[in-house]
Design a protein that fits this description.
Structural class: mainly alpha
Strand content: 5-15%
Shape: elongated
Distance between the termini: 48 Å
Number of strands: 3
Strand order of the largest sheet: 2-1-3
Mean pLDDT: 82
Number of helices: 3
Order of helices and strands: EEEHHH
Low-confidence stretches: none
Helix content: 55-70%
Length: 126
């Protein structure tokens, strides 16, 4: 019988081991080891939530597009608020949808890192 594989929960580390440690040997975080199967279940649950949020936002965006298109007879009557709201909804819906698929299929490591990099761009660390 093969030993169960354990993984560090730290998104920057993901250290694999055949036994759980109280402190991760690579990153130094305390009590962060879970089984590989537990990690897959967490990824599927988180990915499904992201996917549901993305689908909901895209559904609202499509509904608003139909509503705005039925109220305005020409594109020249669209206001900046209408266009901004639609672009924001479509953008957020797409990000959540892609993130959900990424997290469900492969852990979403690249997606989460890109969000962190985008949020911290331009900041200097001492």
């Amino acid at each position: 019988m093969a030993a169960e594989d354990y993984v560090c929960l730290n998104i920057e580390c993901r250290y694999h081991s055949s036994q759980p440690f109280s402190v991760c040997p690579q990153c130094g975080h305390h009590n962060t080891f879970v089984t590989q199967s537990n990690m897959r279940v967490r990824g599927c649950i988180g990915g499904a939530l992201f996917l549901a949020i993305g689908c909901f936002l895209l559904l609202i965006a499509v509904f608003m597009s139909v509503l705005v298109a039925s109220q305005h007879t020409s594109l020249t009557q669209l206001t900046d608020k209408d266009v901004t709201a639609l672009l924001l909804l479509y953008g957020l819906g797409a990000v959540f949808l892609i993130g959900g698929i990424s997290i469900m299929t492969g852990g979403g490591r690249w997606f989460i890192r890109s969000i962190i990099a985008f949020a911290t761009r331009g900041r200097r660390y001492k």
